[in-house]
């Protein structure tokens, strides 16, 4: 279950064709399937009052649509832009980049390597949340060393596996 906050209404992108299952499992108020033809409509319906906080790791059309829905003084933690990782040329930036200025959006890059000195602390905290059933880790485990190359590639593509994709080579 996603932790609740008085200032946060959890919304997530899900990779399944049944966003309701992801919504229930993760305790989200809304979930949007970015592969659905009408995902933009679902996003707008899920955020009728706009968006205040974004943890962005996909980029591309999803990021453009998110920027359009940002409220004034929103903030973005920019962690990745996976939509462009496998393209032969770097894609252009958001088509509505100027909205970040006019909406006075704070954007901060977030690189996990900058925080490696706190990795042990994070691992302990997350382990306690899992142990206490405050969060439910979502992962897909693919057994077998022979599947390792395909599984690795799927981590950078739009695989249909829910949560973290793990190759079990034991």
Describe the structure.
Helix content is 30%, strand content 22%. It has a three-stranded parallel β-sheet with strand order 3-4-5. The chain has a two-stranded parallel sheet with strand order 1-2. A two-stranded parallel sheet has the order 6-7. The chain is globular. With 170 residues, the chain is α/β, with parallel strands linked by helices. It has helices at residues 19-26, 39-46, 60-69, 98-102, 119-131, 148-154; strands at residues 11-14, 30-33, 51-56, 70-78, 106-109, 139-143, 164-168.
Overall number of strands: 7
Overall geometry comes to globular
Radius of gyration based on Cα positions: 17 Å
Helical fraction equals: 25-40%
The fraction of residues assigned to DSSP E strands is: 15-25%
Please summarize the sheet with the most strands: 3 strands, parallel
SSE string, helix = H, strand = E?
EHEHEHEHEHEHE
Structural class by SSE content:
alpha/beta
Number of helices: 6
The main sheet orders its strands as 3-4-5
Average of per-residue pLDDT values = 81
Low-confidence stretches: 1-7
Distance between the termini: 30 Å
Structure summarized in a few sentences:
With 170 residues, the chain is α/β, with parallel strands linked by helices.
Keywords:
7 strands, 170 residues, two-stranded parallel ribbon, alpha/beta, single chain
What is the topology?
Layout: E1 11-14, H1 19-26, E2 30-33, H2 39-46, E3 51-56, H3 60-69, E4 70-78, H4 98-102, E5 106-109, H5 119-131, E6 139-143, H6 148-154, E7 164-168
Parallel strand pairs: 1-2, 3-4, 4-5, 6-7
